[in-house]
Amino acid sequence: MEVTAALIGPAWQLAGAVAMIFALALAARRAPWRWLVHSGSINRYAAASACVLALWQLRASLDGGPALHLLGATLLTLAFGWQLAFIALSAVLAACALAGDSDWLALGVNTGVNAFVPVAVSYAWARFSEVRLPGHLFVFIFSAGFFGAMLAVAATAFAAGTVLYLAGLMGLKALFDNYLPATVLLLFPEAFLTGGMVTLAAVYRPHWLVAYDDSRFIDGR
User: Fold this and answer.
1) Cα separation, 104 vs 186, whole angstroms
2) What one-character DSSP code corresponds to residue 68?
3) Which bin fits 75, alpha (ψ -120 to 50), beta or left (φ > 0)?
4) pTM of the model
5) Burial of 36 from C-beta contacts in 10 A (0-12 / 13-18 / 19+)
6) 10 Å Cβ neighbour count for 176?
7) Domain count, the chain
8) Which residues form the domain of 47?
9) Which secondary structure element, helix H or strand E, spans residue 60, and what is its range?
10) What is the pLDDT of residues 182-192, one digit of tens each?
C-alpha cells in the first residue's frame, strides 16, 4: 500500500524519513547478525527478500490512492524475527524506489506503513498467540500464520488510509467506499500464501522459523 510523494507534503516526507532512520538503527542494533551468519541462514534470508521483492511487483493502483499488493511481512517475521524482517522490507522498498516503482521522497512514510506496521502487528500477534493460546502446532499455523497475515494486511491498509486522510487527500467516504473495500481482497491471498509457507516450513524445515519451538509444540505434548 505505497503512497507517492505527490500524495503527501514535505512535512510527512521529513517525519517519515526521520522515523525510518530511527527504526532502522534500532532494528540493526538488535538484529541477531551472528545467528544469521553462523547458522547458514544468510542464503535463505537473501532468497526470501528477493521473493518478497518479486511479489511486490504484482500490484494494482487505485486512482488517487496507494498501490495495492501482497506484503509477505508476517512470513518474514516468523522466519527471521522482527528485526531482520523490518530490515528486509526496508531494503525491498528501497529497491522499488530504485526501480522507479515508488518515490524516494515517500520512502520514509512507505517504510512506516509497509514495513514497520505489518512487522509490529505480526510480531505482537505471534507473541500473544504464544502466551495466551494453547501450545499446539495447528494453533501456531492458523493463528500466527493465517490470521496473523490477515491482521498485518488489515493494519497496513488502515495505516495507509489514515495517512491519506490526515494529509487531506482522501475523505472518509472515499476511504470506506473505494479504498478499504479494495484492500479486503488482499486478506485471503496473503493469509493463504503465508499460512501455506508456514505449514510447509513447520512440517519439513522447522529450524527455518525462529518463532517455532519444538519444546512448546511437540516435546511438551
Assistant:
1) 25
2) E
3) alpha
4) 0.92
5) middle
6) 11
7) 1
8) 5-219
9) strand 60-61
10) 888 899 999 99
